[in-house]
Specification:
Blueprint lengths: L37 E5 L9 H10 L9 H8 L3 H16 L2 E5 L1
Length: 105
């Protein structure tokens, strides 16, 4: 399914679960799905993989250290270009993403 054909709005067929086992015509199929069967597990020490600058960017961007900051504000605070800020933040997020695992219950 191409991304442009994914249901986006509540009025679209199948929103928010386009891949129901019974298809769009069987709303009862949603009742059979165990949405808690898949859990996202996070390494409790996942932030240890970040250097201090990466941690600072992630914490300020996502509001772990006060209100969330815009990319423009982060770039200005560090004296970097928007592109460099995006690259460093993206690398930090990739490091954190590698510490996530999906487990079936």
């Amino acid at each position: 399914m191409a991304w442009s054909s994914f249901p986006v709005f509540p009025t679209d067929d199948g929103w928010p679960y386009p891949d129901l086992p019974g298809g769009f015509e069987d709303p009862a199929a949603a009742d059979d799905m165990d949405l808690d069967a898949l859990e996202l597990r996070v390494d409790p020490h996942c932030f240890e993989c970040l250097d201090p600058v990466e941690y600072d960017l992630v914490a300020h961007r996502f509001g772990f250290a006060g209100p969330a900051m815009s990319m423009k504000d982060l770039a200005h605070e560090h004296g970097w270009s928007h592109t460099h800020t995006r690259e460093v933040l993206g690398g930090a997020i990739d490091k954190l993403r590698s510490r996530l695992t999906a487990d079936s219950a």
